[in-house]
Amino acid sequence: MFLLNQLVSTRKKIKGQLANALTLINLGLGITAIMFILQGSIWYGFLFIALAALFDRFDGMVARKMKIESELGKQLDSLSDLVSFGVAPALLVQQATLMPLSFVGGLAVVLFILCGALRLARFNITDSPNEFIGLPITAAGCIVAFSTLFTEQLPATFYVIFMICLSGLMISNIRVKKV
Amino acid sequence: MFLLNQLVSTRKKIKGQLANALTLINLGLGITAIMFILQGSIWYGFLFIALAALFDRFDGMVARKMKIESELGKQLDSLSDLVSFGVAPALLVQQATLMPLSFVGGLAVVLFILCGALRLARFNITDSPNEFIGLPITAAGCIVAFSTLFTEQLPATFYVIFMICLSGLMISNIRVKKV
């Protein structure tokens, strides 16, 4: 009987932490992407950001379906998103194409991550169940990461303007319906 | 009279956002540190993490002194801390000494940032005015960054063990008095 109770309690605990574990995997994949970018492996950097996006999609879904949404989960999700869809994609673009622009390229990277952080901080303190206010950092980060597939066709200045536009959209008041 | 009112209102707004502006400068310095690390400039990476720590010390102080503490400020602070004292110092150690360890070094980097994120998420949902629970990520990040000054004297494996210990301390229940 004691063992059965222990088993049930452990199962509940594991279920409760499942969404957070998925969020931590998302963060781990984002960090791995950055480490690949650090070594100049643009392709692996892109691949790991894409994998992080997959897990980011899962964790919210699992939390809602299993009714295990928590305040800790929400905080952890924002922290992970800043790394996986703010820092990692911005560094990916820098390493892939912005290096020759030096200072201007660096400014675009800083702006993108700052606006992403502002977007996440605002998201955490507002309660808007059916829509996002401002372009979500997950979307902005995935678009930026995907755009690095075209660095041979597009000039570096395009990426600077593109990142400035996405930064503006993140802190704007446009409303995006949740899907 | 209208102009005076406008001036007073603008002054209040600027005062209200001063702490958040300092937090964003902290984040900007952390991102700049990462960009230097990306280019292999260990010394500049260390310098910018130290500058970020200086601004991190200021923002909380300003918010408390001017009584402009806000929920947005708290969220922004955590997001900035993860980048400036989690991601940046871990990458600094990786670039400075862990590269030859490959997988094991990468694991230590991931563990350090994951534990930092868990520490920050827990901090955001607990209300403990006089003490920190678990080693603050700011302290852990600064210690790790400072330790890279001794990479010629210490073996890479020391850094792996050191980062694992600090990771454990961040998610532990030890209590650190706020100063």
TrEMBL record, chains A, B:
Any one GO MF term held by the record is:
CDP-diacylglycerol-serine O-phosphatidyltransferase activity
State which Enzyme Commission number(s) the record gives: 2.7.8.8
UniProt topology in membrane: Multi-pass membrane protein
Please state where this protein is localized.
Endomembrane system
Would the keyword Lipid metabolism be found if you checked this record's keyword annotation? yes
> What catalytic reaction does the record list?
a CDP-1,2-diacyl-sn-glycerol + L-serine = a 1,2-diacyl-sn-glycero-3-phospho-L-serine + CMP + H(+)
Offer one Pfam family short name for this entry: CDP-OH_P_transf
Question: What keywords sit in the KW lines?
Answer: Lipid biosynthesis, Lipid metabolism, Membrane, Phospholipid biosynthesis, Phospholipid metabolism, Transferase, Transmembrane, Transmembrane helix
Which residue ranges run through the membrane?
A: 42-58, 103-120, 132-150, 156-176
Q: Which PROSITE patterns match?
A: CDP_ALCOHOL_P_TRANSF
InterPro entries, A to Z:
CDP-alcohol_PTase-I, CDP-diaglyc--ser_O-PTrfase, CDP-OH_P_trans, CDP-OH_PTrfase_TM_dom, CDP_ALCOHOL_P_TRANSF_CS
Main localization is: membrane
Family to which the UniProt record says this protein belongs: Belongs to the CDP-alcohol phosphatidyltransferase class-I family.
Q: Know the name of this protein?
A: CDP-diacylglycerol--serine O-phosphatidyltransferase
Organism of derivation: Shouchella miscanthi
Q: Which gene encodes it?
A: pssA
